[in-house]
Known about the structure:
The structure holds two protein chains of two kinds.
Chain A: E1 31-40, E2 43-53, E3 58-62, H1 69-77, E4 84-89, E5 92-93, E6 104-107, H2 119-129, H3 134-147, H4 163-175, E7 181-185, H5 193-210, E8 213-218, H6 221-227, E9 230-235, E10 238-243, H7 245-250, H8 255-260, E11 265-275, E12 278-283, E13 289-293, E14 302-308, E15 314-316, E16 325-336, E17 340-347, E18 351-358, E19 373-378, E20 384-386
Parallel strand pairs in A: 3-8, 3-9, 6-7, 7-8
Antiparallel strand pairs in A: 1-2, 1-4, 4-5, 9-10, 11-12, 11-14, 12-13, 14-20, 15-19, 16-17, 16-19, 17-18
Helix pairs in contact in A: 2-3, 2-4
Chain B: H1 5-29, H2 45-52, H3 54-87, H4 94-106, H5 109-122, H6 129-152, H7 157-165, H8 170-198, H9 202-207, H10 215-224, H11 229-270
Residues 69-70 of chain A line the site of magnesium ion (MG).
Amino acid sequence: MTLRPFLQQGRPDLPATVFAPWADPNQKPLIRFQNVTKRFGDFTAIDDLSLDIYEREFFALLGPSGCGKTTMMRMLAGFENPTSGRIELAGQDIVPVPPNKRAVNMMFQSYALFPHLTVWDNIAFGLRRDSMPKIDLQRRVEEMLKLTRLEKFARRKPHQISGGQRQRVALARSLAKAPKLLLLDEPLGALDKKLRQDTQFELMDIQEKTGTTFVIVTHDQEEAMTVASRVAVMDEGRLIQVATPADIYEAPNSVYVADFIGDVNILEGTVRATGPNRYHFTWADTGESVTAASERPFSDGQTAHLAIRPEKVQISAERPEGAENAIKGKVHDIAYLGNISTFHVRVAGERIIKAQSANTRRITNRAFTWEDDVWLSWTPTAGVVLSD
Amino acid sequence: MRMSWFNATSLTLGFAFLYLPMVILIIYSFNESRLVTVWAGFSTKWYGELLQNQSFLDAAWVTLKVAVFSSTLATILGTMAAYVLVRGGRFMGRTLFSGMIYAPLVMPEVITGLSLLLLFIGIGLDRGVLTIVLAHTTFSMAFVSVVVSSRLVTFDRSLEEAALDLGASPWDAFRLVTLPIIAPAVISGWLLAFTLSLDDLVIASFTAGPASTTLPIRIFSAVRLGVSPEINALSTIMIAIVTVGVITASLVSKRSMVRQKRDEQAAARAT
Ligand SMILES: Nc1ncnc2c1ncn2[C@@H]1O[C@H](COP(=O)(O)OP(=O)(O)OP(=O)(O)O)[C@@H](O)[C@H]1O
Ligand SMILES: [Mg+2]
């Protein structure tokens, strides 16, 4: 998984600074949800949600189907009004503002290109509504065509171009008015994996070039991790965690988030403090115990979960010397993924623990095979201790 | 595949039943003889005579005016009604309104005609071209709204939202996005209203005044004095106009359906 370097690019005159406006208390958010609730009949789609999004952010909304991602976007665009609460854009309450008067543009999941207009006219549609002078309008459309590499298709109708090109038209059209905020609702859902990855980088590039704030909805956690400056993990209309992709991955705040993002081993047990920020973690099913570090305090005997990513578990034939946490097991299954292999190791109590290792050698030289006795080991800081 | 003996017979019988009277009428309109039932050779002279007959020409002119105005009015009102019913969301009395808009489709024409007549007398409106136009608008607008709303229910709502999102007012979104896309349905609605108006006899006879006889009324009264070859010629012309109208309407909607399908296939292929 590629993680994005959080550096502001494109200003070679300035030293690269960490982009983290959310950590700066003096920054004013571009978007502010304040205790927003949205009900459809007696169904609560968004439940008392508060969230700040800052200028130039690439903010990803991630969560299972039906958790309210599209509803959030539609409230920002003005197609739905919150049942209660306040939504601010640049300090101004936008709830009473109709969609055509908001400095917000949306790229629709279905693209919603106007089938009777050419690519050129689709892109010009929004500019014409502002009665932009003709010269400026032409320049702006050409600029957008160039940005999205669509110059050759300007005179075609939407049904005469490919899916990937259509998606770029939708992007160009929503960017043309230089909105303060661009909403992307599963923009890449319809594309195949290769095209999707290319487009993700293209989107990041465009976001950096234009300085627009992007809010993107996606089902695909890898996509969120790739493009976003911050990720919000949602469930049933609530935010579970809002953090940088690295924090979401390395320091999830709950079992839900740890499980939702990436592959993870989750062990159940109880904790007992052994020192400052150090705990003994005793497995519920076998009584074996391991050492784990945690910044978060736990009381003795509290039940907890230990979440460890498979790539942080080492696999070896002998017990590694000096390892604080090591347990014995048998290789149950091997998933070969090209660059890495995932070993499913059966340890005491019929539990399976996954360990990943990079395939630095060819497959014929692989060290372990089915039913081999192996040792799994990890450092005390490799896992995260989570309360329920 | 060859048709079975049974299918072929039923098809022939069905079509004969539908079209034999009209075919006979068309054939006799080219009859040389004044006697309708005696064939005396091919001739187009009755079409020529028709052009000399001022009262027929006047009636034709009235009919044309009425058809153009009433179908245009019906198309505007019917499209607006369809738009509100499909798009307007839930509002007070929506169900009642949508039921009522379709009532003229099933209402006996005699009742529609009679009630309109009473209304016009009640408000003191002199019967003439205007009253026929109003009457025809009333009943054909229901047909237009059926045609247009069946197109609107399959119309992708997000296109309108996209237009609003890009800064179009609701009226601009309708005018620049919705209307061009549903245009084929609106056109076939207009053609339908036009042909309905063209061949309406019952409602027109209730609402027409002495100086505003429409062609169907004129034909009907002429026929009571005996069928003349001139009437046959006139009816043939009307059949031709209606046929052209109906075929155009179905071609327009078929073409747009084919195009829609092609777009969908292109979209499916590309993604
Ligand atoms: N207009 C509506 N009327 C009633 N319920 C609605 C409406 N719109 C959304 N909902 C409900 O609100 C919930 C959230 O919907 P939303 O479209 O925001 O989900 P989502 O997170 O975008 O899901 P997906 O990933 O499948 O697109 C769903 O349970 C949905 O059924
Ligand atoms: Mg959605």
